[in-house]
Amino acid sequence: MTLRARLLFGGAGVGVVALLVGVGLQPISSAMVGAGDFHPARIEGDRFPKRMIDPAGRVRILPAPPRRIVSSYLGSDEILSVLVDRSRLAAVSIYADDASSSNCLGAFPPPIARVRGEPEEILALRPDLVLVTNFTQDGTVRLLDGAGVPLLRCDSWESFAGVLDHIRLIGAAVGAEADAEDLARAVERRLAAVAARAGGRPRPRVLYYEVPGYTRGAGALIDEMIERAGGTNVAREMGIRGVAELGFESVLALRPEVLVLPGFGAGQAATEIPPVLTRAAGWSEIPAVKAGRVHVIPASAITSLSQHAARGLEELAWIIHPEAR
Predict the structure, then answer these.
(1) How many Å apart are CA 278 and CA 294, to the nearest integer?
(2) How far apart are CA 155 and CA 289, in angstroms?
């Protein structure tokens, strides 16, 4: 049974305590929070020591800029690649090396470790700050929280305002406020440039579609991207919010004028239309197909939760309004 399983199913036992002591962390607290009790982090103070409000709502003191940072998800990998020296990173997520989705390929050489988000591997790295998110497993967050590991939980990225908050929050936690502000302002300038190009133009009906059958509606970053790029997200017509399943029959019924697909492959595969779509009955009758307006945008741009979302917006704007490029 794994360390996490022992915690979830009846007590950590001597082995867990030994591991925690061995890596210099306190034994698991009996006051660990339960699933659903976690909140986004806040940083208070302009200089160290700083107060961090952790996912459980408790105050933790960051006495100095962290020197053994563990990033457990790709969005923070990408932000940290700009904000901190590599010597301060104990680990980044395995997705930093994913050719189809990462914008920081090659940015983290050895000896920086790679983590899958398992608590055992994170604890063994003796971190002084771990970046987690709302899709980090609750069991992992409970264990790390109970072990006294400082946790920075981020979950604001379903809007560009959230992306900018994400950048600034990480900057405050690692002591890179000035660089984070420069990065955020660079994103803001790119957003303004897209608005200037797309403003006042006709708004074609756009559908974002992920094989095998998902789209994103109101309240999702891709929805804001479509609107900022000068289109109308037709997923809204079905009352869709966030990420939702969408069968191919619904794609036909929505009759999008522009169809946008994320490319999750590497190289040329990142821009190819999946054959499962081109072979589907009714494909050739979709207005976007008839007009030659089916586009595959590399997932590294269109699905990014970091500063690179601005590139996704730019590519989407050029697709929707090529005349404004």
Answers:
(1) 11
(2) 36
Amino acid found at 267: G
Domain count, the chain: 2
| Domain assignment of residue 88, yes or no | yes
**Residue 83, token pair as written in the block:** 């904000």
Q: What are the E-state strand segments in 31-76?
A: 42-44, 50-53, 59-62, 69-71
Answer for the pair 63, 51: CB distance below 8 angstroms, yes or no. Answer: no
The tokens describing 19, both together, are 């591991």
For position 79, which CATH number holds? 3.40.50.1980
167 part of a folded domain: no
Tokens (6 digits) for 301: 């741009």
Element spanning 192, H or E: helix 177-198
CB 122, CB 130: distance < 8 Å: yes
0.70 cut: is pTM over it?
Answer: yes
Q: How confident is the model at residue 36 (pLDDT cuts 50, 70, 90)?
A: low
> 272 is written with which tokens?
């190819």
Structural domain including 31 reads 3-155
Report how far residue 206's alpha carbon sits from residue 224's, in angstroms, rounded to the nearest whole number. 12
Which of 155, 183, 213 marks a domain boundary? 155
CB atoms within 10 A of CB 25: 17
Mean pLDDT of 267-281: 86
Cis peptide before 49 (omega within 30 of 0): yes
Mean pLDDT in residue range 84-91? 98
Q: Prior bond to 111 cis, omega within 30?
A: yes
The span from the CA of 82 to the CA of 19, in Å, is 33
Neighbours of 47 (CB within 10 A): 7
Task: Write the DSSP assignment of 252-314 as a string of letters.
Answer: HHH--SEEEEEE-SSGGGGGSPPHHHHTSTTGGGSHHHHTT-EEEEEHHHHT-SSTTHHHHHH
Q: Is residue 40 part of a domain?
A: yes
| Pair (27, 124) in one structural domain | yes
d(CA 305, CA 224): 13
